[in-house]
Write a structure and sequence with these properties.
The complex is a heterodimer of chains A (121) and B (110).
Chain A (H helix, E strand, L loop, with lengths): L4 E3 L2 E4 L5 E6 L6 E7 L6 E7 L2 E4 L8 E4 L6 E5 L8 E8 L2 H6 L7 E2 L3 E5 L1
Chain B lengths: L3 E3 L2 E5 L4 E7 L6 E7 L5 E8 L4 E4 L2 E6 L4 E6 L8 E8 L5 E3 L3 E6 L1
Parallel strand pairs in B: 2-11
Antiparallel strand pairs in B: 1-3, 3-8, 4-5, 4-9, 6-7, 7-8, 9-10, 9-11
Classes of the chains: A mainly beta (121), B mainly beta (110).
């Protein structure tokens, strides 16, 4: 089974530029997450999708960050314009339909991609 | 303050047991997790424990949960060089979100 794919793996940009990251979740996974992992920290949830709908974007800095999952499969995360403090690893994760799992009291397992390492200069 | 806290570094000799500790604050946590992150890779779920359990064993891994003290530990028996990584403790909190600690970097001494 193929895992979660992310691209690019590395990106270096200057502040005020724009950048986009792409994620392809595991086939059949309805739930998709984007996390930001700053150096020395644990991952912090940015946004969660259920199919093509946003479930939780409470921690997404919406003045500069946006994300979409138009067809309910792959997803893009964009930063426009980037700031120095956006330097981090951006992790994508996916899982089976959370509502399905919760109704059946089955523990949800999130599968993580390798991440995109962003450096803003 | 931090919802999940863990020490940042641990050094262990190869063959010894490693014990990584974690404390959390949300008494309503349903599940607690241990993830492993190797250099340049994403997080890999190692094991998890439901909050009404106090112990779970899976091969070389033993998870202990003290719900009263909100303390979670991961014991790795017979630590190998391949166990060198960052280990993240995480809780699923009352809002059904997974909150991660800052990670404990495990260094294996020869």
């Amino acid at each position: 089974e193929a895992g979660v794919a992310q691209s690019p793996r590395y990106k270096i940009i200057e502040k005020r530029q724009s950048v986009a990251f792409w994620c392809n979740p595991i086939s059949g996974h309805a739930t998709l997450y984007w996390y930001q992992q700053i150096l020395g920290q644990g991952p912090k949830l940015l946004i969660q999708f259920q199919n093509n709908g946003v479930v939780d974007d409470s921690q997404l800095p919406k003045d500069r960050f946006s994300a979409e999952r138009l067809k309910g499969v792959d997803s893009t995360l964009k930063i426009q314009p980037a700031k120095l403090e956006d330097s981090a690893v951006y992790l994508c994760a996916s899982s089976l339909d959370r509502r399905f799992l919760r109704e059946r009291r089955i523990q949800e397992t999130q599968y993580f991609g390798p991440g995109t390492r962003l450096l803003v200069l | 303050g931090e919802d999940v806290e863990q020490s940042l570094f641990l050094s262990v000799r190869e063959g010894d047991s490693s014990v990584i500790n974690c404390t959390y604050t949300d008494s309503s946590s349903t599940y607690l997790y241990w993830y492993k992150q190797e250099p340049g890779a994403g997080l890999q779920l190692l094991t998890y424990i439901f909050s009404n359990m106090d112990m779970k064993q899976d091969q070389r891994l033993t998870v202990l949960l003290n719900k009263k003290d909100k303390h979670l530990s991961l014991r790795i028996a017979d630590t190998q060089t391949g166990d060198s990584a960052i280990y993240f403790c995480a809780e699923r909190n009352r809002d059904d979100k997974i909150i991660f600690g800052k990670g404990t970097r495990l260094h294996i001494l020869p």
